[in-house]
Design goal:
There is one protein chain. The chain is an alpha+beta fold and about 130 residues long. The chain is about 20% helix and about 30% strand. Strands 3, 4, 5, 6, 7 and 8 form a six-stranded antiparallel sheet that branches. A two-stranded antiparallel sheet has the order 1-2. The longest helix is centred in the N-terminal third of the chain and has 14 residues, at about 15-30. It starts with 16 loop residues before the first helix and ends with a strand.
């Protein structure tokens, strides 16, 4: 008598680093922020400003995040703006970039307002 076991592998359980980075870069390129004198920024928050994207931190099968360091100068970030990008898995089992949170260097009013507005992001990490 022969017995067969089928092993199912759901590769969608973990958020892939490459897919997360693509979603982050898509968001940043579509939501670039140009510094203005009234806020004290001297740079532009865009894809070129990304210094480093840390490895994905996965909290559960449905929640993950990535910390991203930007080279963005203002009176609070001093060239070291850090944002957390939050991913959630939707009912279709797709990872979605849903929001960002400030970590460091988000002290100016204009930049803080920009971050607060980014709470309903809907970019598929694919």
């Amino acid at each position: 008598m022969a017995t067969c076991f089928f092993v199912s592998c759901d590769t969608n359980k973990k958020l892939n680093q490459v897919n997360a980075e693509k979603a982050i870069k898509e968001f940043v390129s579509n939501n670039a922020l140009k510094g203005s004198g009234s806020w004290g920024q001297t740079g532009t928050l865009n894809v070129e400003a990304i210094q480093k994207i840390d490895p994905i931190s996965q909290f559960s099968e449905t929640q993950a995040s990535a910390i991203v360091n930007f080279n963005f100068h203002d009176s609070f970030s001093d060239g070291n703006l850090i944002l957390k990008f939050i991913f959630n898995k939707n009912v279709d089992k797709k990872w979605i970039l849903t929001s960002i949170e400030p970590v460091q260097g988000v002290g100016s009013e204009g930049l803080s307002n920009w971050v607060r507005k980014q709470q309903n992001i809907n970019i598929v990490a694919q």
